[in-house]
C-alpha cells in the first residue's frame, strides 16, 4: 500500500453517521441510582415560586451533540482502525444493555445494534481485514438483536 490514507471505509453507508450519535448518547446517558424524589408541595402564595429544576432534555441534547462531534472527527480525521474501535465500543454498550449488565434504553440499543451489524456485514466488500476483525462483534450483535427484539413478559418489546 502506498503512503496515502485509505478512505474506502468511508463509503460503506451513511447510517452510522446519522443514526448512531443519538442512540449512543442515550446508551451513555447516566441513569439515576434510585427513583426521583416525589415533587415538593407548592410554595405558599406569598413566597415566590422556586425555579423549576432543569429537565433531562438539555443533558440528552448535549450528550447527542458531543457524540455527533466525536463521530464527525472520526469520519473527517480518523482512520478505519479508529472507526472500527469506536464501533467496538458501541457494540460493548449494546451487548451490556441486552445482557442486562448495564441499564440503558433498549430501543436505542436495538437501533445501534442493527446499524453497526449492517455496517460490519458490508465490510466483506472492502479490501483488508475489517470483515475478519469484526467477526466476534457480528456474532455478539446478532445475539443482542435477538434479545432486544424478544417480547417481554408483559407482551411488549423489551
Commentary on this structure:
It contains 6 helices and no strands. It is mainly α. The chain has a domain of 108 residues. It is globular. The relative contact order is 0.16. About 12% of the residues have low confidence.
Would you summarize the structure shown here?
By secondary structure, the chain is an all-alpha fold.
How is the secondary structure organized here?
Blueprint: H1 15-28, H2 56-77, H3 80-99, H4 106-122, H5 130-133, H6 135-149
Q: How much of the residues is beta strand, in percent?
A: under 5%
User: How much helical structure, as a percent, in the residues?
Assistant: 55-70%
Class based on secondary structure composition and strand pairing:
mainly alpha
Q: List how many beta strands DSSP finds.
A: 0
* Anisotropy-based shape: globular
Average pLDDT over all residues: 79
Radius of gyration: 20 Å
Order of helices and strands: HHHHHH
Number of helices: 6
List unreliable stretches of 5+ residues.
32-50
Q: Compute the separation of the termini in Å.
A: 46 Å
Please give the largest β-sheet: none
Amino acid at each position: 500500500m502506498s503512503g496515502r490514507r485509505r478512505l474506502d471505509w468511508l463509503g460503506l453507508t451513511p447510517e452510522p453517521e446519522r443514526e448512531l450519535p443519538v442512540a449512543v448518547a442515550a446508551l451513555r446517558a447516566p441513569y439515576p441510582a434510585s427513583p426521583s424524589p416525589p415533587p415538593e408541595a407548592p410554595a405558599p402564595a406569598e413566597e415566590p415560586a422556586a425555579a423549576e429544576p432543569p429537565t433531562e432534555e438539555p443533558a440528552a441534547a448535549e450528550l447527542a451533540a458531543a457524540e455527533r462531534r466525536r463521530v464527525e472527527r472520526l469520519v473527517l480525521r480518523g482512520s478505519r482502525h479508529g472507526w472500527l474501535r469506536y464501533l467496538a465500543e458501541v457494540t460493548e454498550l449494546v451487548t451490556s444493555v441486552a445482557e442486562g449488565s448495564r441499564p440503558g434504553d433498549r430501543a436505542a440499543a436495538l437501533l445501534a445494534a442493527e446499524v453497526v451489524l449492517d455496517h460490519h456485514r458490508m465490510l466483506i466488500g472492502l479490501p483488508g481485514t475489517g470483515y475478519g476483525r469484526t467477526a466476534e462483534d457480528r456474532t455478539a450483535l446478532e445475539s443482542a438483536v435477538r434479545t432486544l427484539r424478544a417480547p417481554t413478559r408483559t407482551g411488549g418489546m423489551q
